[in-house]
Amino acid sequence: MKKSPGIRTLRLVRVAQYLRNELMSLPYGGKMPSVRAIMKKTGTGRLTVAHALNQLQNEGVIRIDPCSGIYRIKSTNSEGEIRLIHFQQNDLRMGSFVSVLFQSLVGLAESDGRCLVVENAGQQTPEKIAQKLAEDNISSCILYGAPQPDFMRHLKRRIAHCLELLPRHNDRETVAMRDSPDMTIVQMNYLLKLGYSRIGCLHYGGKDAYLYPIQMLRLLDYYRIMAENGLKVDPDWVLLCSDLYDNLDAGMKKMMSTHPKPEALIASGGAMPFLYEWCRKNHIRIGTDLAVFSADDVNADLKPEATTVTNNPKEIADSFWEMFKKAERGEPVESRYTQLSIRTGRTVPGKTRPV
Description:
Distance between the termini: 60 Å
Shape: globular
Mean pLDDT: 87
Strand order of the largest sheet: 4-3-5-6-7-13
């Protein structure tokens, strides 16, 4: 009979998973959270955290300086290494879409006897990233979430094999696994079939909306579908969210003060925690007073559980890894789109009255 892991082992696994997620979010030389912060985040004691940190130090991926902190360092052996460079500004919380995607790719690489190392690009220029990879003798690279095609163009001049994974730009010159452009179409058709007609849009464009062409195309789909169905769009029903969503409070107040006000809202996954908090403060019951249909990754801790259209990160990893291996073998590779599915939560109830 297989023995179940003890509590101490489970705690070590929890801390190790947290630390590896933190490593993925950092560039080399980046500083890890303090021991006290790790203890608080993982709910474990000092000895458990110390043991997990010693394991990482023995693997040669961190340096522990008793005076200044814990730092990510480069492994001394990069032969055959695949580097995954990303541009995530938020932390890679355990269980999030990006975390699962990256961990799945790491696991697929390991199963093929390869080492895939995840690194945050930080504020480095395309030229600097390409130069550093070449200096590290990296010949295979995955570029995740690049904001512009310049990054891949510079990499292709120096790196033998490189593919893009879910780029934010809309350039078609490079081979990539691209985000499905149909998210808004799926959301709108779903709401229209349920009888919703007053639909608002909580749209993400950040500080520089031109850096998010996929998001802009989704917004155009919203306007197009509303127009094709003869439905009115009040200008205040559309909110372009800032990078930190610090304009959400004022925008939602304005949106929900219109007459008539929206009865349903499509929203990006990143906006959901802020939207839930705003609705709670303003006594609006999501799923009762306002239907909310999210897109992309959604925090599983939100209550009520969100209805969302999303991609499956493990399926994306499997499909992309197949593309990447073909590229390394020198076989022709074509770009692909991710597949969408709807996770039915409790935030978009069916309607009992006609449009």
